[in-house]
Specification:
This protein is globular. The relative contact order is 0.11. It folds into 4 domains: 171 residues, no CATH class; 139 residues, D-amino Acid Aminotransferase, Chain A, domain 1; 95 residues, Dna Ligase, domain 1, CATH 3.30.1490; 89 residues, Ribosomal Protein S8, Chain: A, domain 1. The chain starts with a helix and ends with a helix. By secondary structure, the protein is α+β, with helices and mostly antiparallel strands.
Length: 525
């Protein structure tokens, strides 16, 4: 039976690669979305480790993150299919379609097919689709052969199998290459790319004993270290990280080290709110872990670079960002600002290209992101920033949707020589973006309530000035008080001011609602 299973798997992988080969045949058409005549199947499935995903508030609404793809309907010859676990609120769809400049709403709506599995379980969306043969048949029927491709949040065996089932190429890396997007795989790519990265383990650790030995070895190599970071191999947005403090055990003898390290592991500071040692240590044999030095510094930032590898193997840099981090030790992704600081954005572009070329040699495809740690060292000649790479994301990450929203709304371009983005009119564009505008007081707001607030306070994106706010994750708002925002301006200051005004408006709107609600209850009683 195992031989048969292996044979079927090999056949599936062969079909998948044959389909992906078609991407090269019409890459220039795919690249130029504005003039292409094609069908895009959007599968926004978070096909990642489920237990790690559940550390994120409202993660089941993150299927909305790829709704920026609806802006592609500004091309009157594009058709788009968007599949979700649960139906999307109609006002959310209307909101995105109203963003399209120069395209009648009805024309865009006729080229959009929304499908749902009506399944709220914690399974990945793509698995839910594969369990519904009639839904697969409908997808096959709706997509035009030779003119269709599929995009996803990340590529796994589920996406490979769906690609083969519907006979449409997947514009993403082969699932067998996802190892290069793990914490250990990232460090191996950095080594091959010959770029700076923190000292630590490049191979995965699979039990507590291996972790203790790795910590001891790294400490011996760098006795001046104060702290280390232990990372689960498939952690997401920093939620799988823990900070190990060496200082409480720095004066122990070599004989006492292993036991002292083992005890100190239980005192680690976990970045996820719900994490503890019992759960964390139990995950190590399941998904592996690495340990690396914690980069110290009085002024630290976390810039990132986003790139793309085309089906022809070319590497393109799409954007740079300064990430906004939070959590107990500033390791959890909250949002970003575009572009990264001028002091180092050209440097991280170059490092991103080096990483992208190694990834391309290994056969990876489409989106990749590289996160860095930048530490400022003032000196006589000015400020020097020490840059070290810390991880690779082989998926659409938190910086993907804000940049693509800006690009699609303005039809502008990213200039590699300056690291800036210019609209068609030649105006520099900047933004502040977050997936985590979250407050307890926002709970209970429905998408229609948000639309009222947007309209009343004129917070909508203005296609004339190409400034304003674009919202996402609107489905998160009612239950979690959480909202996604991309605030676009003609300067970094303007983008931040627009964002600050939004927060002020939301606070005022929710305050007035609470007061009127209390008054109503009092009068009723």
């Amino acid at each position: 039976m195992q031989i048969l299973d292996n044979s079927l798997l090999l056949e599936q992988e062969l079909k998948f690669r044959q389909l992906q080969g078609h991407l090269r045949d019409f890459w220039h058409t795919v690249e130029d979305f504005d003039r292409s005549d094609g069908d895009i199947l959007v599968i926004p499935s978070l096909s990642l480790d489920r237990r790690e995903l559940l550390k994120i508030d409202g993660v089941h609404h993150y299927e909305e993150r790829l709704l920026f793809s609806l802006i592609r309907l500004q091309n009157p010859r594009t058709r788009l299919i968007y599949v979700t676990s649960q139906p999307l609120h109609p006002s959310v769809i209307d909101y995105y379609l109203q963003l399209l400049p120069g395209i009648p709403f009805s024309h865009a709506r006729d080229r959009l097919l929304l499908l749902s599995t009506y399944d709220s379980s914690n399974k990945p969306l793509t698995q839910k689709i594969l369990e519904r043969p009639r839904l697969i048949a409908r997808l096959r029927q709706a997509l035009r052969p030779g003119k269709s491709f599929m995009i996803c949040y990340n590529s796994s065996n589920w996406e490979r199998d769906l690609s083969v089932a519907i006979g449409v190429p997947l514009y993403a890396s082969d699932p067998s290459l996802q190892i290069w997007g793990t914490k250990s795989g990232s460090r191996q790519i950095f080594a091959e790319s010959k770029i700076p990265y923190p000292d630590g383990t490049n191979e995965s650790l699979w039990n507590v004993e291996e972790l203790v030995a790795a910590i001891s070895k790294l400490w011996e190599q760098k006795p001046q270290l104060k702290r280390m970071v232990v990372k689960l191999n498939e952690g997401i947005s920093g939620e799988g990280n823990a900070l190990f403090d060496l200082r409480p055990i720095q004066n122990i003898s070599p004989q006492e080290k292993p036991e002292a390290i083992k005890q100190q592991l239980q005192q680690m500071r976990f970045q996820a709110k719900s994490e503890n040692w019992d759960n964390f240590s139990g995950r190590i044999p399941e998904i592996g872990a690495i340990v690396e030095e914690f980069v110290e510094g009085e002024e630290k930032r976390s810039p990132s670079v986003q790139g793309r590898i085309t089906p022809n193997g070319e590497v393109e840099i799409l954007s740079t960002h300064d990430q906004i981090l939070g959590g107990p030790d500033g390791q959890i992704y909250l949002g970003c600002r575009f572009p990264a600081d001028n002091a180092y954005r050209m440097r991280i572009q170059d490092l991103g290209l080096q990483v992208g070329r190694v990834l391309a040699e290994k056969g990876t495809l489409e989106r990749f992101g590289v996160d860095f740690i930048a530490v400022r060292h003032p000196n006589i000649d000015g400020d020097k920033w020490d840059i070290q790479a810390i991880e690779i994301n082989l998926r659409k990450g938190g910086t993907t949707h804000p940049f693509m929203t800006l690009k699609l709304l303005t039809n502008g371009r990213y200039d590699l020589s300056t690291g800036l983005f210019y609209s068609q009119q030649g105006r520099e564009k900047y933004y502040t973006a977050t997936d985590n505008l979250q407050k307890e007081r926002y709970k209970g707001l429905l998408p229609n309530d948000l639309m009222d607030i947007i309209a009343t306070n004129r917070l909508h994106f203005d296609s004339g000035t190409e400034t304003g706010i674009v919202f996402h994750l609107m489905g998160c708002l009612s239950e979690f008080g959480k909202l996604g925002v991309t605030s676009i301006g003609d300067s970094p200051q303007q983008a931040q001011e627009i964002y600050n005004r939004l927060v002020k408006v939301l606070d005022e709107e929710t305050r007035s609602f609470s007061e009127s609600d209390l008054a109503f209850n009092h009068n009723f009683v």
